[in-house]
Design brief:
about 200 residues; 8 helices; mainly alpha
Length: about 200
C-alpha cells in the first residue's frame, strides 16, 4: 500500500511543482538554482510526510469508514490493503498524463535523436533534420482528462473486484465502495484541476 500511495502522492506533487502556478513551490524544489536550503528541506519533509503519513492515514480512515458502511464484515487492515488496489491504476494513469505533454510536444526531437544519437551529424533513419513540430498541443489537456478518467474507471473496477471475496453481498459491497469511490474521485479531480485548469 505504501508503494501505491508514494507513487500517487509523488505524481500529484510533481504535477503541482511543474504545472502549478505557485512559484514558491518551484523555487523550493529547485534548490540548485534558488540556493534556498531551508525551503528545499521543508519541501522534502512535506513530500515525505504526505506520502508516508498523511495520505496513507487518510486512506486508512476512508477504508475504516467503508468497512463500517459495509457492515464491518472484515478486519480494517485487510480491507485497507484490498481497497489500495483502487489507487494503482489512478497512480499509473496520473504518471502517463503527467508525461504526455513532454512526449507530444517533443516527439520530433526524439525522432532526430534516434537518427543522430551521438550528435555526430549522422542521419541513420532520415529523421535527423526533421523540423520541430509539436503534435497537437491544444489537445493535451483533453487527452490528459481522458487518461485520468480511464485510470479512475480501472481503479474503481479493480477495487470492486479486490473486495469481492471479503464482502460477498453485492449490496454491501456497493456500500463499501461508496466512500473509497468518492476519495478516488476527489484525487482525480485534483489532478484534473492541475492538468485542465
Amino acid at each position: 500500500m505504501f508503494n501505491v500511495t508514494i507513487m500517487l502522492v509523488v505524481a500529484i506533487a510533481f504535477s503541482i511543482t511543474m504545472l502549478g502556478p505557485w512559484g514558491f513551490i518551484k523555487d523550493a524544489a529547485n534548490v540548485t538554482e534558488s540556493r534556498q536550503i531551508t525551503s528545499f528541506l521543508v519541501y522534502v519533509a512535506s513530500l515525505w510526510g504526505l506520502a508516508l503519513v498523511v495520505f496513507p492515514g487518510v486512506f486508512m480512515l476512508v477504508s475504516k469508514a467503508a468497512n463500517r458502511m459495509g457492515g464491518g464484515q472484515t478486519h480494517d487492515r485487510t480491507l485497507t490493503l484490498r481497497l489500495a488496489y483502487i489507487l494503482v491504476p489512478i497512480g499509473i494513469f496520473a504518471w502517463i498524463a503527467f508525461s504526455l505533454p513532454a512526449l507530444m510536444v517533443n516527439y520530433s526531437y526524439i525522432l532526430s535523436v534516434l537518427s543522430d544519437p551521438l550528435g555526430l551529424g549522422w542521419n541513420l533513419f532520415g529523421t535527423a533534420n526533421i523540423e520541430f513540430n509539436p503534435f497537437y498541443p491544444e489537445w493535451i489537456p483533453l487527452i490528459q482528462g481522458i487518461i485520468l478518467l480511464t485510470g479512475l474507471y480501472f481503479g474503481l473496477s479493480r477495487g470492486h473486484t479486490a473486495i469481492k471475496e471479503l464482502v460477498k453481498n453485492p449490496q454491501l459491497r456497493a456500500k463499501t465502495m461508496i466512500i473509497p469511490g468518492f476519495f478516488a474521485i476527489f484525487v482525480v479531480n485534483v489532478l484534473l484541476k492541475l492538468y485542465m485548469g
